Amino acid sequence: MSSLAHGNNTLTVEITNISAHGIWLLVREKELFLPYKDFPWFKNQTVKAILNIEEPNPGHFYWPDIDIDLTLESIEHPERFPLKSM
């Protein structure tokens, strides 16, 4: 016997892993890696703060506990967005 899925998956963004090298972000069935070398703001944050992610608009991600805003483009192409401060 197998169970049927109930309802639709309402999560469009989710942190799937936090490692010593960076974090993994799942966005609508696409998994992206955010290495700490390109996204140093996450390195010393708590798990709770990293997991608390919102997507106020499609392709715009916000971590309210650490006040970080990133776009899908800046995650996929960090070389186009050099760091201004840490």
In summary, what is this structure?
The protein is mainly beta and 86 residues long.
What does this structure look like?
This protein is mainly beta and 86 residues long. The protein has one domain (13-80): NE0471 N-terminal domain-like, CATH 3.30.2020. Helices cover 12% and strands 35% of the residues. It has 2 helices and 6 strands. It has helices at 47-51, 72-76; strands at 13-18, 22-27, 30-35, 54-57, 60-63, 68-71. The strands form 2 sheets. A 3-stranded antiparallel sheet has the order 1-2-3. A 3-stranded antiparallel sheet has the order 4-5-6.
CATH topology: NE0471 N-terminal domain-like
Report the order of strands and helices.
EEEHEEEH
Q: Which value, in Å, is the CA radius of gyration?
A: 14 Å
Strand content: 25-35%
Output the strand order for the largest sheet: 1-2-3
User: What is the tally of beta strands?
Assistant: 6
**Could you describe the largest sheet, including whether it forms a barrel?**
3 strands, antiparallel
Q: What's the CATH class label?
A: Alpha Beta
| Tally of distinct domains | 1
Structural class estimated from helices and strands: mainly beta
What would you call the shape? globular
Summed over residues and divided by their number, the pLDDT gives a mean of 87
CATH architecture: 2-Layer Sandwich
State the end-to-end CA separation.
53 Å
State the helicity in percent bands: 10-25%
What is the count of helical runs?
2
Task: List low-confidence stretches.
Answer: none
